């Protein structure tokens, strides 16, 4: 069975600082992994996804994530935080082989605070 | 293309009532999934419908049900509402790109049970 753990429910950084949000997964099959962002009173927006191939994945708004199979991790990073990055971030794994279902297992979420 | 739309955006009900939420997927998407989001339990998968058939189901009681119509629009119903059903209910529609089911989320319906 697949599962996702996000380390740290709340992360605070200064504007311009590195953003690092941690995600570890458990999966009995090659995982399909996602990062979503949620702004207040809105749905989820896909930031990036990993399927197969290149382990460093680039997404929108300057975010990227690296898939490390040996560490079962898929941490999200951004070199320089903007105030507009303040939101809640969710790591998710797709259930089933080849991500071929519409079922995602989400981590508990990490709230990112960006201080001026 | 228009995104996923959910109606209503906000609902207030009382315990024991029932409620129906609606989701219109992105045009051409045939899969619709539903999730419940609460502060305590986070995001939890309810069910997925594909071509009018339930394809996956989460661990929720039978009070939670859904259906999908021939135009891919979906509804979910919660009967005999409990206080704990207060949540943001998110709908996502899926397309298959590069062999991956990629989900696009709607803005959600905020349900408050009093």
List keywords for this structure.
heterodimer; A: 116 residues; mainly beta; 6-stranded mixed beta sheet; 5-stranded antiparallel beta sheet; 11 strands; 53% strand; B: 114 residues; 4-stranded antiparallel beta sheet; 0% helix; globular
Describe this structure in words.
The complex is a heterodimer of chains A (116) and B (114). By secondary structure, chain A is an all-beta fold. Chain A is built from no helices and eleven strands. In chain A, the strands form two sheets. In chain A, strands 2, 4, 5, 9, 10 and 11 form a six-stranded mixed beta sheet that branches. A five-stranded antiparallel beta sheet of chain A has the order 1-3-8-7-6, with no helix packed on it. In chain A, strand 7 and strand 8 form a beta hairpin. The model of chain A has no long low-confidence stretch (mean pLDDT 91). In chain B, 0% of the residues lie in helices and 59% in strands. Chain B is built from no helices and eleven strands. In chain B, strands 2, 4, 5, 6, 9, 10 and 11 form a seven-stranded mixed beta sheet that branches. In chain B, strands 1-3-8-7 form a four-stranded antiparallel beta sheet, with no helix packed on it. Chain B is globular. Chain B starts with a strand and ends with a strand. The model of chain B has no long low-confidence stretch (mean pLDDT 93). The chains are: A mainly beta (116), B mainly beta (114).
